[in-house]
Structures are given as C-alpha cells and as structure tokens.
Specification:
The structure holds two protein chains of two kinds. Chain A is mostly helical. Helix content of chain A is 81%, strand content 2%. The N terminus of chain A is likely disordered. In chain B, a hairpin with a 2-residue loop joins strand 1 and strand 2. Classes of the chains: A mainly alpha, B mainly alpha.
C-alpha cells in the first residue's frame, strides 16, 4: 500500500501520524508519573519511619497522626519548591487521568486511615490488607492507562501483599508491610527518579 | 481579538475548536457512563441479594461468592449482546474509565476471595473497605468526567464507609451497607439510565 492509498478514507500517513501521536501521549503520561517519583520515595520513607516509631513506642497513640501530618507538610513544601523551580504537571489527557487516580486514592486512604485510627480498628487484618490493595489498585490503573509494565509489576507486588496479609501468621504482617514499602514505594520512587534524570539529560544532550 | 489574531501561535478559532473538542470528549465520556447505568443497578441488586442471603439463608459463607459469580455471568451475557458504542466514544477518557472500573472490580473480587478463604469474614473492617473501594472508583470517574452526580455517589460510599468504622454492630453495618448500595449504586444507575433514555429521545427528535 502506498502512502496515498486509502482504506476507509484514511491514508497510511494519517495512520502513522495517529500512532505517533498516541505514542507521544503515552510517553507524556509516563513522564508525568516519573516527575512525581519523589512522592513515592517520600511516602515510602515516611511509612517506614511510622512503623519504626510505632515499634519503639507501641503505647504512644499519636505516632501515625504525627507521621502522616509531617508527610503532608513535607510534600507541600517540596511541591512549592519544585513549582518555583519551574516544574509543571503534564496537561495531557492521560496525565490528567493518572493525576485523578492518585488524588482520589490519597483522599480515600486518608479518610479510611483517619476513621480506623480514631476508632482503634487499625489492628484488623482486613484493614491493613485494604490499604495495600488501595495502593495496588492505583498502580494497576495507572499501569493500564500508561501501558507501562514496570508500574504493572509494582501493582502486582502490592496486590500480592494485600492477599498475603490474610494468610501469613500475624507476626509476619509487619514484615509484609515493610517489604511493600521498600519494594513498591522506595524502590519504584528511586526508579522513577532515575528515569526522570535520564530523560532530562537526554533532552539537554539534544539541545546541545 | 479577531478570529485571525494569534496568541502564542494559535488563532482564536483554533482555541475555540479545541475547547469544543474537549467538551465533546467529556460529554461522550458521560454518555458512555450513562449507557452502562444498568451495570450499577445490576451490581446494586447483587449486593442486596448477598446481604439478604447472609441474613436469612444457610451456608452464609457462600453468599458473596455465589452472588458475585451469578452476577458476573449475567453481566457477561448482557455485555456481549449489547452493541458496541460508536468509534467516537472509544476515546482516551473511555480507556481510562475502563481501566478504573476493571481494575477496581477485579481488586474487590480478589479482596473478597482472600477475606472468605482466610476466614476473616467476621471483621467489620472488610465491609467498610468494600465501601471505600466503590468510593474510589466513583471518585476517580467523577474527577475524570468532571461530573458532580458521580462525585456525590462517591461521597455517599466514603461517608457510609467511614460511618461503618464508627458504628460497628451487625445491624448498623448492614443498614449502612444497604444505604450505600441503594443510593450510590442503584439510584445512581437509575439516574444514568434515565439520562441515556433522555439523550436517545433527543437524538430521535432531532432526526
């Protein structure tokens, strides 16, 4: 088929352009996630601090409220600093959909955690498993939207952790939670930050 | 500014066209959700059936698996028979919404299987979690479609989920679950079906 041949009124060039546009949009959506890799790292470390503090002072009820509040303050400060540095969220449809997923996941987990802590239900296995499932679902939705296998793998780790929580002995649940934070948050955050650095150096190389 | 004047290399006419295209895509996404209103009603009735079984029938541990399996079969049959939406609706928003509902639907089933298989069905937390999962799905959809009725449905799910962690007796839990299912799923589904019928009536009137 030559470039000028038509199939359903569409030329081959049109199709090539459309595919290129779709690929560019997917890449832009991934870049948006990669730009926010630091958030995964931040919350992974914050949760690990909360777990460690909780182990050191098991009777102190304010461990998680203080830790989570500190996390939000830190996130707000880093956002403000990055905005000053000229970082902007991607405006593509995929980027906005992924942002919607993570904002709503954050709101859901916040409501869930606050209600459970206030009512002292945070020790139930189904509660801990649900938190892992929430994060796993957000990763899985992002992975499907962005068609990004690396994030799909992370989603699988979170969802597997959520299911495993129900079946492992109670003393291992904390270990599952820590493993999830290290693999699904800290490592993925570092990977996203490495990708961001590589992309920006490539862009600088092209400009030079 | 005339139609031919440029602002950042883009004419006013081009900007108007882009805004119109974006609005059209949002409207298409909403129409698409309205088209699947029956799914909300179907799943709402399934939740009711499962709750009724756990309250009145024996073998309560089979209530949720059996009801969800039966609903999935009905869902699959109706979905395959329903004609596919037009090409215009298969846009990026549609793809994102499909991802949201498929992943969260699959996640809820996975979670419930793990709860039942591990014998944690007596914990109050798991039903509250299911309400929060539904709130998450509706919240993300509402945000993508910028559609406040679905945002209200999400708020109902989140509100009832939060209340379920506070009011923990069995009767209170069931009342909250039924309220969330009725308002956030069945009523919203009926509203979506009414929207679909209204839009179809308008299209026929124009034709």
């Amino acid at each position: 088929m030559t470039n000028m041949e038509r199939e359903d009124g569409t030329t081959r060039d049109d199709l090539v352009q459309r595919v290129a546009l779709m690929e560019a949009m997917i890449a832009e959506g991934r870049q948006t996630t990669v730009r926010f890799g630091w958030i995964f790292l931040l919350w992974g470390l914050i949760d690990l601090v909360g777990v460690g503090w909780g182990e050191l002072q098991p009777d102190f009820r304010w461990v998680w409220p203080i830790t989570i509040s500190a996390g939000f303050v830190l996130q707000f400060i880093i956002f403000a600093l990055r905005r000053k540095g000229g970082y902007r969220c991607g405006g593509s449809m995929r980027g906005r959909s992924v942002a919607a997923v993570w904002r709503m996941m954050g709101l859901t987990v916040l409501l869930y955690v606050v209600a459970a802590i206030v009512q002292h239900k945070a020790g139930q296995i189904s509660y801990i498993a649900a938190i892992l499932m929430f994060v796993g679902m957000a990763h899985a939705i992002s992975a499907v939207i962005l068609r990004w296998w690396a994030q799909g793998l992370v989603a699988g780790v979170w969802l597997a952790g959520g299911v495993a929580t129900f079946f492992v002995p109670r003393s291992y649940v904390l270990g599952v939670f820590i493993a999830e934070m290290c693999l699904g948050m800290v490592l993925f955050g570092l990977y996203a930050m490495w990708l961001e650095r590589r992309m920006s150096s490539e862009v600088q190389g092209e400009r030079a | 500014m005339t139609n031919m004047e440029r602002e950042g290399g883009v004419t006013r006419e081009e900007l108007v066209q882009r805004v119109a295209l974006m609005e059209e895509m949002i409207a298409e996404g909403r129409q698409s959700t309205a088209r699947y209103g029956w799914m909300f009603v179907l799943w709402g009735l399934t939740y009711f059936a499962a709750i009724a079984w756990t309250m009145t029938l024996p073998y309560t541990e089979w209530a949720w698996p059996a009801c969800i399996a039966a609903c999935s079969v009905v869902f699959g049959i109706v979905r395959t028979r329903q004609p596919r939406a037009g090409g215009k609706i298969d846009n990026l928003r549609r793809h994102s919404l499909d991802a949201v509902w498929q992943v969260i639907g699959g996640g809820i089933i996975l979670y419930l299987i793990a709860v039942i298989a591990s014998g944690h069905g007596k914990e109050t937390g798991y039903l509250a979690s299911v309400l929060f999962f539904n709130g998450l799905a509706n919240g993300v959809s509402a945000r993508i479609l910028r559609w406040w009725p679905q945002g209200a449905a999400a708020a109902i799910w989140w509100g009832c989920g939060t209340a379920m962690l506070i009011f923990t007796t069995r009767a209170e839990g069931i009342a909250l679950f039924v309220t969330a299912t009725f308002c956030g799923m069945i009523l919203f589904g009926l509203y979506a079906m009414w929207l679909e019928r209204r839009d179809a009536g308008m299209v026929q009137a124009h034709a």
